[in-house]
């Protein structure tokens, strides 16, 4: 499944050739596809390893970022995070950096894997609190650590407006785009955040939250790791049931302004996802639609 115009083709033959050339000690291990996201394709290697390959040159910058910062952040966090153990070099056939990580067992956070959603929301809040409180260790909001979700909402205004129009065209009356746009515009009028910059995971959607024995076990995919304002970090809680969302909010003691800006970020990311992936990634579009409907249901219940 190709998602981007500039995507580099990836298949098992390609992965095996990279391993044979650069990691011959692992070349004979079993290899099976372990999933794919908007930015990366993953293969499980043997029982204990994961090969992660970026789809595009832009995504490849995350490889270097994770290799540099995850080993330094891991001891400061209350849940396991990916452990990079090899950085693959670009080749003529695959001209991007790639990674091998330790395999982390677990299931995506969803109904059927989580036992207690309120407890899950509290555990996620604990992880976010520790991440946001971690020493920046000299990192700053520059270069690859300056992803847009750690900035100001107004910086996204020019292109998010076009995404609302795209949603109206594709979804019509199936989604209350007018209310969503009103919430977005109201957030644009709020005071911008002025607190200190913090470490941000950047994409705490359920697919990146691994569950074991019904509880949050690990947080994966730090490709969006950045430094910035924390508001957008909270946006993915609308992907979780209301019990988790309320527990998360209460545990972090978020004020109404932060919550409104987080909700606007949730809207922005979802409408842009629908606009960009409408023809290529229906599962992700469905995830974005579910997030937007959760926001609408939340507003209607207040």
Strand and helix layout:
Elements: H1 12-22, E1 31-36, E2 40-45, E3 49-54, H2 57-73, E4 84-88, E5 98-102, E6 107-108, H3 117-133, H4 157-171, H5 177-188, E7 198-200, E8 209-212, E9 215-219, E10 226-228, H6 242-252, H7 256-277, H8 282-301
Antiparallel strand pairs: 1-2, 2-3, 3-5, 4-5, 6-8, 7-10, 8-9
Helix pairs in contact: 3-6, 4-7, 5-7, 7-8
What does this protein look like?
The protein is an alpha+beta fold and 302 residues long. The protein has two domains: 12-102, Phosphorylase Kinase, domain 1, CATH 3.30.200; 107-301, Aminoglycoside 3'-phosphotransferase, Chain: A, domain 2. 41% of the residues lie in helices and 15% in strands. Helix 3 (117-133) packs parallel to helix 6 (242-252) and helix 4 (157-171) crosses helix 7 (256-277). It is globular, with a radius of gyration of 19 Å. The termini are far apart. The mean pLDDT is 96. It is an enzyme of class 2 (transferase). Residues 31-265 form the Aminoglycoside phosphotransferase domain. This is Aminoglycoside phosphotransferase family protein. InterPro entries: AGP_Transferase, Aminoglycoside_PTrfase, Kinase-like_dom_sf. Keywords: Transferase.
């Amino acid at each position: 499944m190709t998602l981007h115009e500039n995507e580099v083709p990836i298949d098992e033959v390609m992965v095996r050739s990279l391993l044979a050339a650069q990691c011959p000690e692992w070349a004979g291990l079993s290899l099976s596809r372990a999933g794919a996201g908007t930015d990366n394709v993953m293969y499980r290697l043997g029982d204990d390893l994961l090969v992660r390959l970026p789809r595009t040159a832009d995504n490849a910058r995350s490889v270097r970022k994770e290799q540099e910062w995850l080993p330094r952040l891991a001891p400061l966090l209350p849940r396991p995070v990916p452990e990079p153990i090899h950085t693959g070099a670009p080749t003529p056939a695959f001209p991007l950096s790639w990674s091998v990580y330790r395999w982390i067992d677990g299931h995506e956070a969803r109904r059927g894997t989580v036992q207690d959603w309120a407890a899950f929301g509290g555990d996620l809040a604990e992880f976010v609190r520790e991440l946001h409180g971690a020493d920046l260790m000299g990192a700053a909001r520059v270069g690859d650590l300056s992803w847009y979700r750690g900035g100001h909402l107004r910086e996204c205004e020019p292109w998010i407006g076009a995404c609302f129009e795209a949603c109206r065209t594709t979804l019509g009356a199936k989604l209350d785009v007018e209310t969503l746009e009103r919430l977005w515009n109201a957030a644009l009028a709020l005071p911008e955040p002025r607190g200190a910059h913090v470490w941000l995971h950047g994409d705490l959607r359920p697919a990146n939250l691994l569950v074991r024995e019904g509880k949050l076990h690990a947080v994966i995919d730090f490709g969006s790791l950045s430094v910035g304002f924390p508001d957008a970090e909270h946006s993915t809680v609308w992907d979780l049931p209301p019990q988790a969302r309320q527990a998360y909010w209460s545990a972090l003691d978020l004020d109404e302004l932060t919550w409104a800006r987080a909700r606007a970020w949730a809207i922005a990311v979802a409408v842009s996802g629908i606009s960009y992936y409408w023809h290529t990634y229906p599962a992700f579009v469905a995830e974005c639609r579910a997030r937007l409907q959760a926001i609408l249901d939340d507003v209607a219940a207040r």
